[in-house]
Amino acid sequence: MTTIKDVASFANVSVATVSRVLNNKGNVKRETKLQVEKAIKYLNYSPNDLARNLFTGNSKMIALLIPDITNPFFPELASSIESAANEHGYTLILCNTAGNQSKELTYLSALRRKCVDGIVLVSNTLDSKQILESGIPTVVLDRETDFDITSITVNNYEGGKQAVRFLKDIGCDKIAHIAGSDNISSTKNRKKGYIEMIKEDPWIIENLIVPGGYSAKESFKSTIKILTTHPDINGIFASNDVMAVGVLEAVKSLDISVPKDLAIIGFDGIELGEITTPTITTMSQPITAMGRKAVDLLIKKMQYKNDEISSEVFQVELIKREST
Amino acid sequence: MTTIKDVASFANVSVATVSRVLNNKGNVKRETKLQVEKAIKYLNYSPNDLARNLFTGNSKMIALLIPDITNPFFPELASSIESAANEHGYTLILCNTAGNQSKELTYLSALRRKCVDGIVLVSNTLDSKQILESGIPTVVLDRETDFDITSITVNNYEGGKQAVRFLKDIGCDKIAHIAGSDNISSTKNRKKGYIEMIKEDPWIIENLIVPGGYSAKESFKSTIKILTTHPDINGIFASNDVMAVGVLEAVKSLDISVPKDLAIIGFDGIELGEITTPTITTMSQPITAMGRKAVDLLIKKMQYKNDEISSEVFQVELIKREST
Question: What number is the ipTM of this complex?
Fold first, then answer.
């Protein structure tokens, strides 16, 4: 790799002179400048991070850490963040963490060395101390963290309540819940909303909450099991759309008619819910607006050194489709 | 940002001494070493790329450039590459290029500055000269490029032929094709395979090839259109599984029975094809093996400076499901 030293030695000038030319700062004779530029071209030199950071203070790169690239919600979120970042002249790199704390920490440390300008983080394992230690401006997206860091979330608790209220409004009187993990604030709060809405129902002594493992396959299995034990269930609230797809396939495989005999509602608003038969009703998150907001807040931190900590909470919206 | 110079000045030693401590090389007095380590800890110093590269010659990071993060094929491929990379002690970063040449070049140049050790590239716009110019060890995946660079692909032409042959074997005598773009070698070759298989059919004068835009929605529209014009079509080969899902939904919306009146086959073998009703027959790519091979070949280039150019061609496999 060509270094700034090589350029200096080739051009027969000091490293400081090369840096002045690179940054167009300070007094450099025209002739010397041409000499340095020739050396840069000849050696195919590209200023690396250290140089670049010493000189300009930024790399024009943002990293996005997401827990599961195979759940379409995150690619859709990544696309919206990428568009917003590109509009501001930033390039986005993606890091898939599998929600694994040691992978998350490895990324944070690697990104720090790589001098990424900012980070958008979706994590349910790190606390704000661990995040702030990296020293890189960061906003947390999708999942609540403690309060020392700027976050963008949706009102998952209210969304959960609204989903169940809607199922009740259309006549469901025994509603099951396909849940995410209690370690993840977003799905934990959706479950809380579900519990709040059903706590006075006569069948409350039976536990109608089953785990969906964030996958259509897991959710398929759990749905088959709970519908076999409780054939009188006539509404299911799945904690995300991917799991709602699993519910739908399970219900169809049992020859139960949707929505006549059983209604299904998901959460997220990903495109997948529009291509199933029937299409799936969902509590839709404003994915584009959230991505845009994350980038806006990050830009303020990166470019204007804004230290303010804010919590943006977006509202989810009921989108009625054929499954209810 | 703390630099190696700050550490040296804080510890009252030379930069060279700090570098010897960082890399555990050369003779450094125990006392001096402790002093440097104290300075590193106190200043929260993390060696950046330049330092790290000068010292150890690698960043232990691989980048993967993919054209469309919202097509589940690429997240599945990324996951397999990530597992293989992690096993070798490498961290993977993902770059979503939208198949846009200027974005691809921006990434290559940014990654070069960031001193990524290697790149796995899925691109249909760059030639090998542009790729090799970055100076970073690179393997090309999924799409054929010219021959100056190591590539991992599947036999798309044979796969296309096999898909159509299977539809004929089960009795389809009028087969349409939902195509990708001719700019992309993989889907272009699948189309070639289709054409080869139908070129002697009596209905060849009618053009039954329609564009699917790599999305379920586009493919849905194209399918409705072609089935309205040609209601006697009884088989459809979609150039990828996402488009096959669009075909399935379109066919169902026209109340045509699958597979009784019309059979559908896709390409890729993504999980999505297993959760539709009916499940979708596909020409499956060995996604895990391809990802693993890409990392293996890249490791050879990165660690053993292997300059050999190879072309690995994997075979696709017919997976029969309910849509045929």
Answer: 0.73
